[in-house]
Design goal:
Blueprint: E1 17-22, E2 25-32, E3 37-41, H1 52-58, E4 63-67, H2 85-99, E5 104-109, H3 111-122, E6 127-133, H4 144-154, H5 156-163, H6 167-175, H7 185-193, H8 201-212, H9 214-221, E7 232-237, H10 246-254, E8 259-263, H11 270-273, H12 275-287
Parallel strand pairs: 3-4, 3-5, 5-6, 6-7, 7-8
Antiparallel strand pairs: 1-2, 2-4
Helix pairs in contact: 1-12, 2-3, 4-5, 4-8
């Protein structure tokens, strides 16, 4: 693939596609603007499309790079790849190295938070600022809020719902908004089209990580205090029923002195519900001395 597929609305997503080979798989990314790098990392069931409005707002002042993780968006979607968080983190490091990014600033949410912080922890001198929202990076093993859904995901029913019914896009995504009207049918179509039937292994693998990645997350969590708290800005959609506000309290306790901005009427996908506010705050945070 050298061009965007015809199902993309180029008014919503007017970016030139770029492709790179990592571990024999083709990854898609967008690269808009020049100057200081803002590197956007998504979660599930997302792709770089989710950051479109933030990038439109910031590309005149920054170089905005947004990756589609393997199995998502316009990247390859093999059914036999390593879709663990650790696997995504390994490829992310290779992506940054191959493109030669220096002094980057990371913007990440959901599963993308830990995936990108894995890079930060091992390359602190190459990362200036970290902007996170509605994410976590600790063991969820004994947390009742997550253990119930994790058990369902591992069942035959969970597998069926993810692989056949595209549950994360069709059911979970609308419920994750603070205001469902912010998820327009046209935007929703782009999330559906990016995960067609037979190509949903990565999204299901992320769900399985709720049970399987706890040791990996905890190891990172126990190191996160080694990053200076003043490098962090947190946004938080307070109506997020999936990654609730208590996770923000966990971040604040581990990184006292970090900055945070609350959106009381937004849910999980803050970049979709509050792009203008996010863009302004990111610009101010990155350019502050």
């Amino acid at each position: 693939m050298t061009e965007s597929p015809d199902w993309i609305n180029k008014e919503l997503y007017p970016f030139k596609p770029h492709f790179i080979t990592i571990e024999n798989h083709t990854l898609h990314y967008i690269d808009e603007g020049v100057g200081t790098i803002l590197f956007f990392v998504h979660g599930t069931p997302e792709w770089s499309f989710g950051y479109r409005d933030v990038i439109k707002n910031l590309q005149k002042k920054f170089r905005c790079v947004a990756i589609d993780l393997l199995g998502f968006g316009l990247s390859d979607k093999p059914n036999d790849a390593d879709y663990t968080c650790a696997g995504h983190a390994r490829r992310l490091t290779k992506f940054i190295d191959q493109l030669g990014f220096k002094n980057l600033n990371i913007v990440a949410n959901d599963f993308g938070g830990s995936i990108s912080l894995s890079y930060v922890l091992d390359h602190q001198d190459n990362v200036d600022r970290i902007i996170l929202f509605n994410t976590w990076m600790r063991s969820l093993q004994d947390d009742k809020h997550y253990s119930g859904p994790a058990k369902i995901v591992k069942s035959w029913l969970g597998k069926f719902l993810y692989l056949n019914m595209n549950a994360p896009v069709n059911v979970i995504m609308p419920q994750a908004y603070g205001d469902r009207k912010k998820l327009s049918p046209e935007a929703h179509r782009h999330y559906k089209a990016a995960l067609p039937k037979g190509k949903r292994t990565a999204a299901y693998a992320f769900a399985l990580e709720l049970s399987s990645a706890n040791a990996w997350w905890q190891e990172l969590w126990e190191r996160v205090h080694t990053i200076s708290a003043d490098k962090f800005l947190f946004f938080w959609g307070m109506k997020d029923k999936f990654i609730p506000p208590f996770e923000l309290e966990n971040w604040k306790s581990r990184l006292p002195g970090s900055r945070y901005i609350l959106f009381h009427d937004a849910g999980h996908f803050v970049q979709e519900e509050k792009p203008e506010e996010m863009s302004k705050a990111i610009e101010e945070f990155i350019t502050a001395s």
